[in-house]
Amino acid sequence: MNYIDLRSDTVTMPTDEMREAIANALVGDDVYCDDPTVNKLEKLAAEKTGKEAALIVPSGTFGNQLALFTHTRRGQEVIVGKNNHIVIHEVGASAVIAGVQLRTIDTVNGTMNPAEVKKAIRQDDIHEPETGLICVEEAHGCGAVVSLENLKEIKKIAQENSIPVHLDGARIFNAATSLNVEVKEIAECADTVMFCLSKGLAAPAGSMLAGSKKFIDRARKNRKLMGGGMRQIGILAAAGIIALEKMTLRLEEDHKNAKYFAEELSKIPGVNVKFDRTDIDMIYFEMGEEVISEKAFIEKLYEKNIKVNGIEDGEYRFVTHVGVTKSDIDFVIKCMKEIM
Q: Within 10 Å of residue 16's Cβ, how many Cβ atoms?
């Protein structure tokens, strides 16, 4: 059965071209660095981000935690926005894997105040942990894009204090599309960057971690330690190459659909759309229980072959992607009006 799936842009299916590439991929053993398709993907990822080298990893969470593990020493502290993915959606992995603690600071739609970042850097005090890393997120999971000026200011502060910066760029191609800049302009604001191939780009799995050659060499060994040596992974890398070369070029369509979706949702009585966070492919909105219960909303849409997630932090989230057309959006709006 075909569903309109609005839960996330991770639900996309690989394209026919990807499936063919997967079937015909040249492969080797990537732990020995002799998978030609992986090597091609890693080179492409490094070029796209303007970094010396890149490494394929199983997921975005794996890539972020590998970065923390490689950048820091146990007992150090990482400065990060309190509602960043690393904090709220990665199962406390930083404490388990890297053995670091997170120093979270407030954000406004994902943007950290550089003055607060500077203030959060620990001094040379016997009682305090050492600041080992600063993490930023672009585009942010709240649906907003952080300005380049903000990212550059945080990078400047980090350099002045000899602290590396890691960018959780799970949706960095969405951010670049929204800002109308090349991905490498955003990645330049950090020492390392992680981005996902399976969020909006239709690859079935996989993420990339990019940085200096020295860093990636260390990360490759740490990836093995974490169980991420995946052998004949060229079958996934083949889809990843198409994701980077072709699927990144169509993200503007998802953004336009999201803006259209937001406008149509806002016309429904009782729906409060968060228009200050519609920079990419996400629409956040509030809808009280007096309009329709969360349980009834999810179940009645599912009956019409529409999949949505429940409320998180008081809000619903719909996400557009290659599997959601403008006519799908019109159908969802029609169904919402009927059930409400």
A: 8
> What residues make up the domain containing 201?
16-248
φ, ψ for residue 296, nearest 5 deg: -65, -40
- CB neighbours of 265 closer than 8 A, spacing ≥ 6? 271, 273, 283, 285, 318, 333, 336
Strand partners, 282: 319
Q: Which amino acid is at 140?
A: H
The pLDDT tens digits of the residues spanning 156-188 come to 999 999 999 999 999 999 999 999 999 999 999
Res. 1: pLDDT tops 80: no
Instruction: Give the C-alpha separation, 209 to 46, whole Å.
Output: 9
Average pLDDT over residues 314-331: 98
Residues 250, 275: contact at Cβ < 8 Å? no
Residues 238 and 318 in one domain: no
Using DSSP bridges, classify how beta strands 192-196 and 107-108 pair: parallel, antiparallel or unpaired: unpaired
The full DSSP string for 222-278 is: HHHHTT---SSTHHHHHHHHHHHHTGGGGHHHHHHHHHHHHHHHHTSTTEEE-GGG-
Phi, psi of 81, deg, nearest 5: -60, 140
Mean pLDDT (the chain) is 97
Amino acid identity, residue 17?
Answer: E
Domain closes at, from 199, 224, 248: 248
- The bridge status of strand 53-57 relative to strand 207-211 is antiparallel
pLDDT of residue 340: 87
Domain identity same for 125 and 159: yes
pLDDT in the model for residue 289: 87
pTM exceeds 0.85: yes
pLDDT at 329: 98
Task: Identify residue 91 by its one-letter amino acid code.
Answer: V
Number of structural domains (the chain) is: 2
22 Cα distance to chain centroid: 23
Same domain, residue pair 288 and 181 = no
Q: What is the rounded CA–CA span in Å between residue 54 and residue 42?
A: 5
CATH (domain of 334): 3.90.1150.10
Peptide bond into 219 cis (omega under 30): no
